[in-house]
């Protein structure tokens, strides 16, 4: 996945700026992003505080690690079943 040039903290700051009354078109033009990107940010980070975003990132990292662990264990299990399932 492509890494964004904006951090979660910066994204939340931009969303709060628009909530405070700035026009979306002006903010989008200043940042050099599309309106689609802005509204995608709004759907993901809308209503979050900076601390919530940090916790969300930590949970996503932990989830990714757990998925990798489960995938590795599943591969090991399938390999063992394949080897032990054959008759000698």
Automatic annotation (TrEMBL):
Question: Superkingdom of this entry's organism?
Answer: Bacteria
Give the GO molecular function terms.
Answer: DNA binding; transposase activity
Q: Which InterPro entries match?
A: Homeodomain-like_sf, Transposase_8, Transposase_8_domain
- One GO term of the biological process aspect: DNA transposition
Q: What is this protein called?
A: Transposase IS3/IS911 family protein
Species the sequence originates in: Anaeromyxobacter dehalogenans (strain ATCC BAA-258 / DSM 21875 / 2CP-1)
């Amino acid at each position: 996945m492509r890494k964004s040039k904006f951090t979660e903290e910066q994204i939340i700051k931009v969303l709060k700026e628009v909530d405070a009354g700035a026009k979306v078109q002006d903010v989008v033009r200043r940042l050099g992003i599309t309106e689609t990107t802005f509204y995608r940010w709004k759907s993901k980070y809308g209503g979050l505080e900076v601390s919530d975003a940090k916790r969300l990132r930590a949970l996503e990292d932990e989830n990714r690690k757990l998925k990798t662990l489960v995938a590795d264990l599943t591969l090991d299990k399938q390999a063992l079943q394949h080897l032990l399932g054959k008759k000698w």
